[in-house]
Amino acid sequence: MNASPILDQSEDAGIVTVTMNRPDVHNALDEALIAELTQTIVSLARRTDVRAVILTGNGPSFSAGTDISWMERLAAGKSADDARRLANLLFQIRSCPKPTIAKINGAALGAGIGLAVACDILVADDEAQFAFPAVRLGMVPAVIGPFVTEAIGVHQARRYFLTGESFSAEDARRIGLVHAICLGAHLDETVGGFVEQLLAAGPQSLRETKSLINAFGEAPVGQAILDEAAKASARIRRTDEAREGLSAFIEKRPASWQQSR
Predict the structure, then answer these.
(1) What is the pTM of this model?
(2) Domain 10-199 sits in CATH 1.10.3720.10
C-alpha cells in the first residue's frame, strides 16, 4: 500500500499544518498529491475552528515541482485537464478564507514555487534554492505564471522564467518572492512568529481582508472600487467582532479571539 501523499494534518490552537509526504521524489506533484491537496484545502476552508493553514514538505525539500514520470505520461495525451487541476489547486489556496503560510524547507522548483506563492505569507530556509526550469525541458511555466508574476513583477519574471536559472533564498527575498528567510533551525520559530500575529487578529476580519485583497488586487483605483471598499468598511464596522475589538482596545484587555499557542 502506498503512503498517503499528505501526512496526517497536525493542529495546534486552530493552526493546521499540511505536510506533503513524497520525500522520495522531493514532494513532486502528481495527480494524487494535487487531488488530495485540493480536497484538504477545500475542507479546511469550510471549517470554522481553523484559524490559519501552514503548507510544508516532508524531507529535505518543499517541492521539486511536477513529477517527471507523471509529465512523461501527460506528454502522450492532448487534454489540458491535468493543468486545470493544478490551476484549481493554486486557486483554492489563493482563495482560501483562512490565512495561509508556506513554510519552505529546502528546494522549491517550478510548480512547487506556484504552491508557495499561492499562499499569503512565504517563509524560507536560508539554504533553500529556487528555479523555474520549464524552459530547460522545452515547456513553459504557464499555470504558475500569473501567480508568480503577481508576486515578483513582469521585469523579474522575464529573467527567471526565460533563463530557468537557480537562485538563492536571499535572491528570492530580494525580488519579493518570499517575505522572510531564516536559518533552517529557526524555521519553526519564524513561522510561529507570523502565526502569533495572525492569532491576534479577528478571524472574520482576516477573512474579509483576504477577500478584499483578492477582489481588488492590482486593479486600477477608480470610483467603483472605492465605492465597494467604503461599503465593505461600513459593513464590517457593524459586526460583533468589530465591536468586540474596539471594546477590548478601549478597555485595554485582550479581545475574545486572541490566543497564544
Answers:
(1) 0.90
(2) no
